[in-house]
Structures
1.
Amino acid sequence: MDRDQNELQFLGFLGVYRETSKIILKWRKIFAQITLALILPLCVTFLAHSLVAQLLSYKILDHEITRNDVWVDDPMYRNLSRKLKKEWVAFWLVRLGYFIFIFIFSLLSTSAVVSTVACVYAAKQVTFKKIMSVVPRVWKRLMVTFFWSFGIFFMYNVVAVGLLIAWLLIVRQYSVGPALGIAVAVILFILYVIGFVYITMIWQLASVISVLEDAYGRKAMVKSKRLIKGKMGLSIWCFLGVLVCAMLVQALFECFVVLDFVPIGIKIGVGLICLLLLLMVVLFDLVVQTVIYFVCKSYHRENIDNSSLPDHLEVNLGDCPTEGQKPVQLEQLHA
């Protein structure tokens, strides 16, 4: 594929997806290795948590209902209370372990995929071993960016909840009509979703910046906000496309694996299919995020040269550009 760097800025929704597919297919061996090493544990944990959490929730709910029908001084009530306490402890331990595991492997997967795509665009041969040598250094920078994003999301949600509570108090205090109350609540919700998606887009691009450039944390968020200008619509559409696919896989898993009335053979088969589909969706999403980064750089006419890559990438990836070489031209990816 011979594509001039400046042409990347004209890629649309389908163009980004087509570019992503070509990269994955051409470099399928190393992406398959990354998928098996990092993305597979991530997806298995996600689906397993969905199943285990659902089973624990059903069990807790059943015991709660049974306990409500028993007298307080009945020995069965105390027995159910002890069981519920253990089940709630197990539930929150599962949740905690899930979030820790997902957090770690999400950072590792992002670091590996973004580094690989960067070297693909540099038209340099890269091995799985070299990529894995980069990950331990890069993921720490990515973690700082994540915590900054988490803090922004937290403050955003606090403000959103505060506004909602304030509106509910106004409705109650001044006897606002139900039609107006619901209309304003819907408007607030729409504005909340728009803001949430906007922050998500900035965070995703900031994650790529944290891997490929010297900026991370707050600096990466600020640079991401500047870089994504003019391509926010493209980023949102690409994000929504992947999100819809992920939701469909999740719905399929919930309907055929989590529910009890489905035969065990079908559960196993559908579970494996969902795992395979989720692996593809996660890998595709990570590559899309990196392609969008290069599209944004092209849109703002910023060359990707050796100074754009952090020192740890240059040191560990011997096949990537070194000092004195010409800038990385995005058209060097050949079909």
2.
Amino acid sequence: MAASQSRRFNLIRDVDNTKETWRLKVQVIRLYSVPSWLNPKETNRIEMIFCDEKKDKIQASFGEKMVKTFRPLIYEGELYTISNFSVTENKDNLKACKNKWKINFHKNTSIRDCSTVEIPKYPFEIISFEDIFDQIPTTNVFIDIIGVLKGKSAVDIVGEERKQTKKMKIKLENECGRTLEVLLWGDYVELLNHYVETHPGRITVILQFVKLKYFNGLPFVSNSFYTSRLLLNWKCEALTCFLASIGNLDDNNTTLEDLNVKRALSINDDFSQCTNRKYISDFLEIKEVKYVN
């Protein structure tokens, strides 16, 4: 009977747009409101990310006309059975997960509480700094990263007077000593600064659902205003594995680098970055000059 019951549910990896009779057991690992462009105080739609027991993910959403119907029924971190929904191709410019498809609620969509499936609260897909520098991940899908906080800049206020927001640059280091630049925006700036002020010692940062970008061939990541999750020294399997990989590396060196201060270059860096390059052909044009007293 139990096996028959379990077969009544589908896996996210099987979902496509061929029917609307899919039935899923999922955890809502992210839920956020996207405000109206013209009026930020109004909700345009609710976006969600579902994850099933196989750790596969899919985006889901419902529009402003259904907020009153569905918002009181669904919460981040809870388990549900979801059925009677439509499936369309995910054409978002920036996707929360790799899944080709996206779930859309309609008036007949069913949501029921569920507690019979075990799904990790935060199922991470950590991307290594090496893969990022090798440009292996695509830039149209959010990624997850982990690293030790090594430096941060002062807070900048940017934007027009009515739409000002805070911006701060931080530097993360991986288990190999490689560093990656991160731009934090909005509330994420205050969240990190408050934690730094109140928690002395090494801080390990996990950033989930962040944007990957490249500038002049160099990578950096940036949080999304609504989707991203910032976790600091968060006890989880990903943190345990990461700490095991770095051991006691720099455990006593917890002073953060001031990213507003331009560092003095080493002799090698000074030569490679600041010395004008010449080619052999340039020297072939040099003529001998003799000075006569």
3.
Amino acid sequence: MQKMRVKLASIFFFFFFFLFSSTAAFNITKLLGQYPEFGAFNDYLTKTKISDQINRRQTITVLALDNATIAPLSGKPLDVITDILSDHVVLDYFGIPKIKRLLENKKSSLLTTLYQTSGQAVNQQGFLNVSFDADGDIAFGSGAKGSPLVAKLVKSVAAQPYNISVLQVSAPIVAPGIDPNPSPPPPPAPKKTPPPKKSPAEAPGPSDEDADGPVADTPADAPEAESPEADAPGSSDSPASSPPKPADDEDEDEAPAPSKSGSSRAQVASAFVCVGMMTSLLSFFKAL
């Protein structure tokens, strides 16, 4: 009887191990592996074991850095890189539309990061501040008091609502006190300036055909209505050369969602298999 109980416990252990391992919502390493421009960031997530922590969660947002932007972290101790990148993992799902809705009624908001769960965070080092900057763009900074907004939201890289969202940011976010030898901050982005106004069109010079023809006796005799410049539409009347920008709410939908349907189908199939196995096991042991 004792041996039977041991066997039963072993079977249930493997059953639940199979259940939880087969229903993982996503794999951040495979997801970022589809984007070579984030190869260095993906490697750091693997070396620091942050990828394992991300994959164990059901809801997450990753603020990704491309290969050029993450370069200042190279050469730093691995534990420092771990702490910095842990602050780039938000413990909730945030697509661009959700962030904009969050900021509709408040100037800024604090987001909890993976670094907060490490037990090392002090003075709100484990939080990120998200707000609109002076240019009206979404920007992030450390949640520590007095920290500036240092990273602009660039774009949505990938999304699997409402499990994982990968957003690209323009610079590393380093909370005060995490890095003993911080890199100099990146130069501020140039302010957006409106295009220069076009000066009024000048009357065109005579064409080659006019040069060969007879010259009018006085400039007043030339009819102004026939001037080609007068007939041409002004710059304000010309149609836009590019299509209108899509609405903000479409950003989340347009972000790639790799293997979303495949993952959902696999989870459903795994659940049915597990339920079937459980039913069979219970029937078997009742028959004993």
